[in-house]
Design brief:
The structure holds 2 protein chains of 2 kinds.
Chain A lengths: L3 E4 L2 E5 L4 E7 L6 E7 L6 E7 L4 E4 L2 E6 L4 E6 L8 E7 L10 E2 L3 E6 L1
Parallel strand pairs in A: 2-11
Antiparallel strand pairs in A: 1-3, 3-8, 4-5, 4-9, 6-7, 7-8, 9-10, 9-11
Chain B lengths: L4 E3 L2 E4 L5 E6 L6 E7 L5 E8 L14 E5 L5 E5 L8 E8 L8 E2 L3 E5 L1
Parallel strand pairs in B: 2-10
Antiparallel strand pairs in B: 1-3, 3-7, 4-5, 4-8, 6-7, 8-9, 8-10
The chains are: A mainly beta, B mainly beta.
Amino acid sequence: GENVEQHPSTLSVQEGDSAVIKCTYSDSASNYFPWYKQELGKRPQLIIDIRSNVGEKKDQRIAVTLNKTAKHFSLHITETQPEDSAVYFCAASGADNYGQNFVFGPGTRLSVLP
Amino acid sequence: GAGVSQSPSNKVTEKGKDVELRCDPISGHTALYWYRQSLGQGLEFLIYFQGNSAPDKSGLPSDRFSAERTGGSVSTLTIQRTQQEDSAVYLCASSFQDRAYEQYFGPGTRLTVT
C-alpha cells in the first residue's frame, strides 16, 4: 500500500522568510496530492492540491511542486506570516473520479516567529 | 451553506463502554470518510463510503469499530468496548462524487476514554 513520509516534523522560520515542506510517496499509481493546513484545535482545511499531470501550481504565496519520477512533492510558502503557523499535512491518493482513501503524511508543525 | 457537522464535539467515556459518533455531511456529497487523529499525530484513515457501494473498511483498526451510513447521508461511527488507546479526535469528511478527492472536514469529535 501507499506510504507517505513528510519532512521536517517541525519548522521554525522568521516572519517574511520562506518555508518548504517535503513529502515522498511510495505508490507510483498515486495521482493526486493535496495539502491541508490544521490550526490548533481546528479542522484540517485544503489549501492547495496538485495532480500528476502538472509539475507546479501556485496560489498567491503558496506553491506546490511535484516530481513524479522521484515520487516527491513539496509545499512552498513565501513571505511567511504569523497566521501561517499551523500543522501542515500532505497526502497522496490514487483518486479517480470516484475517489479512494487518502494516505496522509505525519504532519509538519510550522512556527512563524515575529 | 452548512459545512460538515459532527456530534458530540467532546465525549468522555469509561473503558469498556460503547460510543457512537455522528457525522452530517454537506448536502449533495455522496462520499464520506472517517479519520482518526491521535494527539500530535497525523490523520489515520478508517472507512470510506461512496454512494450505494460497499464501504471501504480497510482502515478500521479492529472489529470493535464499525460504521454505517443511512440513506446515503448521515453516518455513525460506533466503537464497542472502548479502550484507552481509542482516545483521539475522530474526523469526518465528505466530498462530491465527481470530485471525490476534494474533501471537506468536520470539526471532529474528541473522544477520551478513562
